Amino acid sequence: MNVLLTMLLSICTLFVLCVDSGDNNPNLIPEIIKLGLLSPIFKNKGSKNDSKNYRGIVVLPILCKIIEYIARIDFRPILLEKQSPLQRGFTPNTSPLNAAIIFEEIYREYTDCNSPFYIALLDAKSAFDVVIINMLMRKIFLLDIEPATWSIIDELHKNTSCSIKWKNQLSQEFKVYQGVKQGGLLSADLYKLYIEDLLSLYENSTLGCKIGNININAVACADDIALLSDNPYDLQILVNHALQYSQLHYYTLQPQKSVIIQVENKAKKTANHNWNFNRDNK
């Protein structure tokens, strides 16, 4: 019992040192607590010999998860208060299926009016893995969260390292300089904040599909974004917004995996259009 009590007191002391901030006592989270174990998980499509068909899931020490949980207590409510209603992924009391309901309503509206519309499904390459930490921390700062919470999140992404587990073997540790860890408690919320400005741009745009006076031009589930428009030229503008945002935030939209769907009325055929998904207009 004395050993258990001593261990609990030591852990509590460690947490206090990690979260207690100040000019004379900056946050300090030991690097060993931030060491991730990355397991490549096959996506069940394509060749198993191609590394692009694997998703890296990171397992973090339980002590790191507890610190993330502490930071999330303050961070998540502020994020949800300012989060765009277009974002339906990883949101409490909201199911991603709600995004499907929006699509269903658009489909019924335009079918009843015998009008065609267009859907763009955008695919971002390795979205979570290429987040620029300095840009992310600036966005968190602008949320006006508690300085101690900002410091904890910042410290969680400093001097981090990872090791790859493959067939019961471990690689040497290597430093990680970008990205939010897939598997971390904060990762989904942090990525939603990273693309929040793009969704706000769509929210304030008058382009796209409409139901009555309500404009509906985008729906997102974390990194998956769908754009809707009843005009092919307006859809290209919406795609251009996403493309420009991806360039400014150093991630890539994949033309090979992004899809345009033309929902046509059988009695009213529309002309085929070509859409551009990259800066070279290809």
Please describe what this structure looks like:
This protein is an alpha+beta fold and 282 residues long. The chain folds into 2 domains: 1-81 and 132-178, no CATH class; 83-129 and 184-282, Alpha-Beta Plaits. 38% of the residues lie in helices and 20% in strands. It contains 8 helices and 13 strands. The protein has helices at 2-19, 62-82, 97-112, 133-142, 147-156, 187-194, 196-203, 232-248; strands spanning 36-42, 54-59, 117-122, 124-125, 160-166, 169-170, 174-176, 209-211, 214-216, 218-221, 224-229, 252-253, 259-263. Strands 1, 2, 5, 6 and 7 form a 5-stranded mixed beta sheet that branches. It has a 4-stranded antiparallel beta sheet with strand order 10-11-3-13, with helices on both faces. A hairpin with a 2-residue loop joins β10 (218-221) and β11 (224-229). α2 (62-82) crosses α5 and α4 runs antiparallel to α5 (147-156). The longest helix has 21 residues, at 62-82. The chain is elongated and about 75 Å long. The termini are far apart. The relative contact order is 0.17. The mean pLDDT is 89.
